[in-house]
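Lecture 7 notes. Example A: sequence first, then its structure tokens.
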Amino acid sequence: MAAHIGKSPRTVKRMTPSLIGRGLLERENGKRNGKWIVKDINLNL
């Protein structure tokens, strides 16, 4: 994910709890075999 958005892995790790709390990111199927789900973002542009 870090390489895809052009940020350091540490920055992504720091931002993850905030994104989960805001409902923008969700973990599916646990820590070991799970995957991250990016929620639909409606920016109303």
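Example B, a different protein, same format:
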Amino acid sequence: MGEFPPEKVNVAASGVLAPLSFDGDLLANYAAAKAADFLHRPAADVNSRAAENKAAQDAVVAALKVSPIRPALWLTLGTLKTQAGELATPAVKMSYLAGAVPIAVAFARLQTVTSNAAAADEEIKLLAQSDVRAALANRSRYEQLLIAAYLQATPQGKSLLLETTQGTDPKFNQILRRY
């Protein structure tokens, strides 16, 4: 089964079929579309935003129960939890443990880690170092994004970025320290 970009999926139509399906791909696609719909569209009010986040989290959890080896979907759950002000550390950790991801997803994961309490978790700090190294390997593409992630990071997230870049790319470490 091929995956459709979230903007091409009819969430309302797939919502009827997804809860009845035991097909991991269908559930994962539905969950990704529901999450993308929530994350990329402003809500009318705070109450509807919370309800939409909960519905997106429920769709992601349902998909992960059927097919848990989906690192990007675990990251999506962590991102939704972060948006809701909930603890995201377990979901983010599972995004690392479930398998490898493309560099763009690794960078998104790094942004999630550095912007919430997950950066304080010692295991996640060790795992996140690989995302920092991957971004630095593509420094020309990710330098400005890494700086933006640093500026938005929690104190623990900033520490993670500084510690990792110190040994990996001291020149870039000096650039971060200027901010």
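Note on Example B: Residues 46-66 form the longest helix (21 residues). Confidence is low (pLDDT under 50) at residues 1-21.
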